Task: inverse folding
């Protein structure tokens, strides 16, 4: 029995979704509405006491940490190999996944929450919101949600995130000028990981990420967008978030 | 040819040193100190993974011209390439447990222990020597975040809030390790693995850095686990590579704390 608890095919939730789709592994999808804080409900906390999504339950085993789940999926199931056979390329795959997880994605999500998501969440009943934040089990997550919902990021923090993104976009463009995929000559988990963070860059950072300035990055995004697994993942989206992928259609 | 550029055997530099000793692999050791030779990284540039080293002044592995950073991922590489003894139990579940665990502790403890260590041991020295002491290293590091790791140490006073938050994270990490060891002898289960090496490297200095947080009363299982790892000949050999005799007091600017709090 294989059940994935996830939100939209986006960011952390999208990572194991795309890995499972690429492997061609059937799984039961359990959609949780991140913006309704379903992941902190008592029912879900019984399954994953950390209150984080995504989470994969394989028989009796609970798996958390989206990037580590991707590696589990690749090892545990038959299907196309998503980890390079060369150990150096495997090292590179992991290095770039960490770059996206800890450097690039936090900057992008800070701006995303400030500009797009936070304002709509703040329209809800303040008492209800506070109650939902209070039930978040992990302090780190509670702090992060408070920052996201109440937009406590300073102008300096947001500007710094923008600087990091624009610098990162140039770095990724340079990498993809040297090789077709992030880890090397073959599509790997690093590309699947990064796509879920980067697919909306032409929408959210149009001045930095476009056909003129970053042609290799754009081509890489389009190639991933066109993969059947990506299309299948995108069809699981329920909100307008996933519609941003359509900008990648040729 | 296998070469490791590393600092004193503590935190990030300690991980690959233990792995190399455990696997009994011959390598050329380049013991580097960025305050004495700031530009040793230049021989590898341009190189994104060196320049943007998210561990700050972490080790660099060079294997037949292939240059690698990130102490945990280079440790997996070493385990992959050099046989026969594997430092990872077989199977997808063990693989996930090691990756997820090391990622979690790396994010929680890596920045926190580095912060406590640099402000205890390195910042007082740099403040005394003045801004000129880091001029060369600032000139040699192209990545802004890495330069900021150094300049923060010249502030006239320690950042009280960051230090308090780091102590909180260290306490949390100790509690988590103690909790895992309540159920198994080693962090990934029944056998010693890269997960233990990774977490040992990040925490063995805590018995002297934060003795009020880590002691026989607060975390007896973790204290016993540290002793079991310290007793291993490979770990003793790695720690014996110290030039100062006090590797647990050697710290350099490390990874950033999460910007999300």
Result:
């Amino acid at each position: 029995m294989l059940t994935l608890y996830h939100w939209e095919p986006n960011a952390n939730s999208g990572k194991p979704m795309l890995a499972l789709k690429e492997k061609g592994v059937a799984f039961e999808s359990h959609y949780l509405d991140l913006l309704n804080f379903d992941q902190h409900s008592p029912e879900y906390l019984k399954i994953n006491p950390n209150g984080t999504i995504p989470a994969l339950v394989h028989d009796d085993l609970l798996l958390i940490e989206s990037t580590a789940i991707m590696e589990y999926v690749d090892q545990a199931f038959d299907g196309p190999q998503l980890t390079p056979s060369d150990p150096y390329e495997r090292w590179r795959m992991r290095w770039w996944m960490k770059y996206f997880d800890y450097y690039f994605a936090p900057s992008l999500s800070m701006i995303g929450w400030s500009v797009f998501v936070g304002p709509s969440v703040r329209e809800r009943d303040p008492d209800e919101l506070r109650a939902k934040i209070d039930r978040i089990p992990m302090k780190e997550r509670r702090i992060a949600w408070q920052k996201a919902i109440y937009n406590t990021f300073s102008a300096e923090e947001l500007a710094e995130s923008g600087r990091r993104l624009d610098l990162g976009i140039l770095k990724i463009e340079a990498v993809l000028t040297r090789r077709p995929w992030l880890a090397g000559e073959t599509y790997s988990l690093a590309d699947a990981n990064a796509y879920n963070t980067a697919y909306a860059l032409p929408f959210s950072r149009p001045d930095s990420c476009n056909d003129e300035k970053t042609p290799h990055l754009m081509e890489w995004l389009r190639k991933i967008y066109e993969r059947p697994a990506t299309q299948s993942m995108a069809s699981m989206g329920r909100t307008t978030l996933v519609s941003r992928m359509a900008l990648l259609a040729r | 040819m296998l070469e490791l550029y590393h600092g004193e055997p503590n935190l990030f530099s300690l991980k690959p040193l233990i792995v190399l000793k455990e696997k009994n692999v011959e390598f050329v050791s380049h013991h580097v100190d960025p305050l004495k030779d700031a530009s040793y990284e230049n021989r590898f540039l341009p190189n994104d993974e060196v320049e943007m080293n998210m561990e700050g002044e972490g080790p660099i592995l060079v294997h037949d011209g292939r240059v690698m950073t990130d102490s945990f991922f280079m440790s997996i590489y070493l385990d992959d390439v050099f046989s026969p003894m594997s430092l990872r139990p077989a199977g997808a579940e063990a693989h996930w447990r090691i990756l997820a665990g090391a990622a979690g502790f790396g994010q929680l403890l890596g920045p926190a222990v580095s912060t406590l260590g640099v402000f205890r041991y390195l910042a007082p020295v740099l403040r005394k020597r003045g801004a000129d002491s880091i001029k060369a290293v600032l000139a040699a590091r192209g990545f802004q975040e890495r330069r900021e790791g150094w300049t923060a140490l010249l502030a006239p006073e320690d950042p009280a809030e960051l230090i308090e938050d780091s102590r909180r994270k260290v306490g949390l990490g100790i509690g988590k390790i103690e909790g895992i060891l309540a159920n198994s002898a080693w962090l990934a289960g029944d056998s010693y693995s890269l997960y233990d090496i990774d977490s040992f490297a990040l925490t063995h200095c805590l018995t002297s850095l934060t003795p009020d947080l880590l002691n026989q009363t607060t975390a007896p299982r973790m204290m016993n686990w540290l002793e079991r790892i310290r007793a291993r000949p490979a770990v003793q050999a790695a720690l014996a590579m110290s030039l100062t005799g006090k590797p647990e007091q050697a710290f350099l600017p490390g990874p950033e704390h999460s910007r999300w709090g």
